[in-house]
Amino acid sequence: MYKLFKPALSIILPACLLTISACNNSNTKSTTNMTDSLEAKIPPASAFQKTIDGKKTDLYILKNSKGMEVAITNFGGRVVSILVPDKNGKLTDVVEGFDSVEGYKNAPGPYYGAIIGRYGNRIAKGKFPLEGKEYSLFINNAPNTLHGGKVGFDSKVWDAKQIDSTTLELTYLSKDMEEGYPGNLQAKVVYTLTNDNGLKIDYTATTDKTTIVNLTNHTYFNLNGANGGTILNHKAQIFADTYTPIDPTSIPTGIIAPVKGTPFDFTQPAVIGSRINDKDEQLTNGKGYDHNFVLTKPSLDTPVATVVGDKSDIEMQIFTQEPGLQFYTGNFMKGDNAMKYGAKDNYRTAFAMETEHFPDSPNEPKFPSVVLKPGQVYKTTTEYKFSIAK
Ligand code: BGC
Question: Which residue is closest in CA terms to ligand 1's atom 6?
Fold first, then answer.
């Protein structure tokens, strides 16, 4: 069960009373070269200013004092761009995504950049027990439910309020029995760009009936740049001594297995591609890395994982309060979609590091609980922080 948090008294500063409308970034000065020929830039806001399901979508820009920029749309709360300097100081867009809201709407499945809910990752056979009742969900990843169901939080238009130049607040009310989950769930996700180049994501949720909740963010990163080619030469370190092996349908077997002596040992930095083709039943089941790592020490002060782009030397550190990290190496990417910078979403040209509770937890009493009860507040923070590798 999630811990009970006393909702903090919010001190509303006068500046915060101003709801700053989405910045029209057509004049954005982010024109530095990312590669020899392409410049890193945030897509035009106009390509995101549409009406979907009767609600307005837009593109919101966060900027910090270091020149880092992040673009987020309220369609699915998707992170569209993250512009950070590489080893030569050139701004690099490390997010694989689309340059229009239609791109995201027409290709919901890969969940590019999205907030995932009500339940991140899979629930076996789309069924779970709760307080003596069995609930059924839509099977969108046969034979299981993946990332919320037919229309998850990734494809909802969230209510957006830009608090200031570094903070965007998104809220969404998921109605009782939406996608088969009980309880009206009021969810809030706050993106904050810090002055030490961190993108902090604060998730909160409350319910009026006992329910399950497991929110995460599904940004696809390529630290060499959005059109940077394979991620197999990136180096990753994950501070996890154990992981949750999966069956051939990607459902955890329930076993918590040591990583030692397996291709899942990232306790020391390792090139992502160095063991990905090893003969290993788990790599076969996941078609590569697509597994939940059991974090040894979830923390907002020391990283739970670090990834470095081999060409850019851009280092991304991940901090989280969540017990698990789903490391996904883009094994299902097929190059079907036209992405930003004229790139295709080719096989393994991006990776995701989704901080969350373990897949299928509602059916695994031994896993940390994802149950949320009325009166409790679901509250969790994750941060992705960027720097240059030393
Ligand atoms: C899942 C993958 C899935 C990907 C995109 C990841 O979180 O574990 O199996 O293909 O999301 O949907």
Answer: 328
Q: What is the mean pLDDT of residues 81-96?
A: 97
- Residue pair 88/181 in contact (Cβ under 8 Å)? The answer is no
For 3-90, strand residue ranges (E) read 51-52, 55-56, 59-63, 69-73, 79-85
C-alpha 121 to ligand 1 mean position (Å): 7
Which entry of 218, 234, 291, 357 is annotated as an active-site residue? 218
The model's pTM is 0.91
Q: What is the pLDDT of residue 154?
A: 98
pLDDT tens track for 128-176: 999 999 999 999 999 999 999 999 999 999 999 999 999 999 999 999 9
How big is the chain by its Cα radius of gyration, in Å? 20
Residue 38: its pLDDT value, please?
A: 72
Protein residue closest via CA to atom 4 of ligand 1: 110
Q: Are 365 and 289 in contact (CB under 8 A)?
A: no
Domains of the chain: 49-388 (2.70.98.10)
Do 75 and 155 form a contact (C-beta atoms < 8 A)? Answer: yes
